[in-house]
Amino acid sequence: MAASSSLSSSSAPMELFPPKSKITKWPRYSICCHNKVSFIKPSYLKSLHPPNSRFLSINTSSKKRILQRDAFQFHCRVLEIEGAPSFSVGQKFQLDDIIEAQQFDRDILNALFEVTHEMENIEKNSPGNQILKGYLMATLFYEPSTRTRLSFESAMRRLGGEVLTTENAREFSSAAKGETLEDTIRTIEGYSDIIVMRHFESGAARRAAATAGIPIINAGDGPGQHPTQALLDIYTIGREVGKLDGIKVGLVGDLANGRTVRSLAYLLAKYKDVKIYFVAPDVVKMKDDIKDYLTSKGVEWEESADLVEVASKCDVVYQTRIQKERFGERIDLYEKARGKYIVNQDILKVMPRHAVVMHPLPRLDEITVDVDADPRAAYFRQAKYGLYIRMALLKLLLVGW
Known about the structure:
Elements: E1 5-10, E2 29-33, E3 36-40, E4 63-65, E5 76-85, H1 106-125, E6 136-141, H2 147-158, E7 162-166, H3 169-172, H4 181-188, E8 194-199, H5 204-211, E9 216-221, H6 227-241, E10 248-252, H7 259-268, E11 275-279, H8 288-296, E12 300-304, H9 307-313, E13 316-319, H10 331-337, H11 345-350, E14 356-358, H12 379-399
C-alpha cells in the first residue's frame, strides 16, 4: 500500500507538527521516547467510542494516519504516515469469529490497532467504562493459561462486561464425562454472548465456530494457531521497533509446536520487505507448511543454527519455550532440544540498540533473568499490550467499529 510520510527529529522530549490547514484527513501524532508512546488527537476528531449499537450506517471515505516511533530508543521522533481507510464508527466488524491469523488483512490490522490505542486510553484514564455493559463472555479453557485467560477476563470487565469462566475444562467440565466439543459449545452459547476457547487439539476452534451462533475467539488450539497472541505480537513490534515493513525477525526455540510463532509468521507475511530467520533445534524446526506459505507470499526466510549471528541482524528476537507437553513420552527428544538456544548477556551484546527481545511467556531458562533489566527486554510490556488488543477485539466483535 502506498504511503507518504513526513519526518521530524528532535532531542527534546516532546515535539509535534501542528495540524496543517490543508489536511482534510484525520491526523494523529505520536511522541516517542524510551519505549513510551503518547497519542494526541485534535479536539475536532470524532471519538472512536461507538454507541452500544450493532449496526449503524457505513462510511468508508474517512482516512487515518498510522504513526510510528523511531527505532533508536533514546531519541525522539515524530513520524506521520497516511494509511488505509478507517472503518466508520458503528460499522459491523468484518469478522464473525477469530480463528486464525490469515483472516486479517492490512486494512483491518491498521484499523484494529487504532482501536487498540483507544483501549489503552480507556484502561488508563476511564475506569468504569461501560462499552460492553450487558454482554457476557464465557472463557472455556481445556489447557492451562495465565496471561491469555486473565487478560481476556480483565479486558471484558474493564469494558463493563461480565465473565463466566472455567480454568480447566478438560478435567472440570462435562468433557470429563465424554461430552463432545460441539455439544459443549451449543450449551455455553445459550449462557453467553461470546466464547473464548483454548483447546488441546488443532482445529478445535474451527469446529466450535462452525457450531456456534455467537462469536468464537481461538485462544490457542494445540500446536495449531494462537491468533490473538499474533495480533498482540505485531502490535508490540510496531510499538517497540517503530515499523512493520522492512523488519528482520528471528524466531527462536520450539518452532514445530509453537502456535505463537506459526500465527506470527502468517501476520508478518502481510508486510513488505520482511525477512524471517528460523533458529531451532533439529527436532523442533519450523514445519514446511509455514515455509511454503511464506515463499508463496514472497517473504524471504532463512534457517540458521547460529543465534548470535541472527541476533546481530534482527530488529526482533522472538524467543519461545521448548514445550515439554508436546513431546509425550519422548522426553529424550525434549532434553535434546532444551537449552540449545538461550538469550543472555552475550546475545544482548550483539543485538542492535533499537532491537527488542520478545517472548509469549511463560519462560523457563531460555531467557536468563538478568536480561529483564535491559530496556530491549519487551516481553512483559508485550503481555500488557495483550490486554489492549483483547479489549479491542471484544469491543469490535460485540458492538462493531
